[in-house]
Amino acid sequence: MTIPNLITIMRLVLVPAVVLAMFQARWDWAFAGFLVAGISDGIDGFIARRFNQHSKLGAYLDPVADKLLLVSVFVVLGFIGQLPLWLVVTMVSRDALIICAVLLSTVMAHPVEMKPLLVSKVNTAIQIVLAALVLGELAFSIHLDPLRPALIMLSGVLTVASAAAYLVAWLRHMSGYGEGSTPGT
């Protein structure tokens, strides 16, 4: 058990705390928990790289913790009407499709190693900024109206683009086109 893994586990524990704070309309706590999770993600990555504390467990846990927090926050914000449901459904559907594709390729004995694509990294960054912005607006009773709709549209476009890019990469992999290379390369 490495220090980065312990930090990641702490991030996993933060997910229900942030969700509970959101359902209790404790936006200050939800915003703080979201920020702590984001900062801890950077810290565990730095420690893993700087002190060579990479682990197989961490390679799986870190993205799971990140995605679980982000999806949970988006779902709750959609449920309470702070984000449009079309965006939440698009985000969750994209992630579900990626998971199903990876599982299907594994079951078909043609496993695929999914590496994050640039469009996916940008999409995730925009989603994080959007979630932080909405939580910040609620925590501090401010409205950044021109920014929120722009981030919502950008997030929607990037989510669809990311899903399409992963689908193309997965189809190439499954058809044998580009054998020896993995999607995202």
Describe the structure.
The chain has 185 residues and is mainly α. The protein is 78% helix and 0% strand. The protein is built from 6 helices and no strands. It has helices at residues 3-23, 27-50, 56-79, 85-107, 118-140, 147-175. It starts with a helix and ends in a 10-residue tail after the last helix. The model has no long low-confidence stretch (mean pLDDT 93).
Span of the ends, CA to CA: 31 Å
What is the alpha-carbon Rg in Å? 17 Å
Helices and strands, in order, run as: HHHHHH
Query: Average pLDDT value?
Result: 93
The portion of residues forming beta strands comes to: under 5%
* Biggest pleated sheet: none
Contiguous uncertain segments of 5+ residues: none
Number of helices: 6
Jot down its keywords.
185 residues, mainly alpha, 78% helix
Topology:
Elements: H1 3-23, H2 27-50, H3 56-79, H4 85-107, H5 118-140, H6 147-175
Short description:
Helix 3 (56-79) packs across helix 5 and helix 5 (118-140) packs antiparallel against helix 6.
